[in-house]
Design goal:
By secondary structure, the protein is mainly beta. The chain contains 1 helix and 10 strands. The chain has a single domain, classed as Rieske Iron-sulfur Protein (3-layer Sandwich). The termini are far apart.
Length: 159
């Protein structure tokens, strides 16, 4: 059975399983993804930006809608993501944040997305915090919300 590499891929599949083409495809999706535009129903002032250090998070609940949102500081930028895993409804933002690896030849590791990968605490499904895109499936994602620091230095999420 002949293995094929998607156009634009820089990996070679000799001696590797067929899952590498799928992984390469998943990374291209994450690389090209942009956060979706959210409806601007209101804003949540989370806390002072200085209260969430790089690599840290804060989970808040919108009192109007009851929606739980995790706010993450990824290398000095703030991102907000819905605190519900689309798989079985786990509190997604309680999961671990880490990096992942791009497909590569055996014994070669290509770390990427450092501090951007959120792993569900129940079943390990992984999502890019910046875009909400799933790393396991091209069509899955979790909701993200616009997030910024206002003139007072507070982190504000638009919901």
């Amino acid at each position: 059975m002949e293995k094929t590499v998607p156009a634009g891929s820089d990996i070679r599949l000799e001696g590797y399983g067929s899952e590498n083409a799928a992984l390469d495809h998943a990374f291209r999706i994450v690389d090209a993804a942009l956060p979706p535009k959210a409806r601007n129903r209101g804003q949540i002032v989370v806390c002072a930006a200085s209260e969430i250090a790089p690599g840290e998070k804060r989970v808040v609940q919108d009192e109007q809608t009851g929606v739980s949102i995790g706010v993450f500081n990824v290398a000095g930028e703030f991102f907000a993501i819905k605190n519900v895993c689309p798989h079985l409804g786990a509190p997604l933002c309680l999961g671990s944040v880490h990096a992942t690896h791009r497909p590569s030849p055996v014994f070669e590791f290509r770390p990427d997305l450092d501090g951007r990968v959120l792993r569900c605490p129940w079943h390990g499904w992984e999502f890019d915090i910046v875009t909400g895109k799933a790393l396991y499936d091209a069509n899955s994602r979790v909701a993200t919300y616009p997030c910024a620091v206002n003139d007072l230095g507070d982190v504000v999420v638009s919901v």
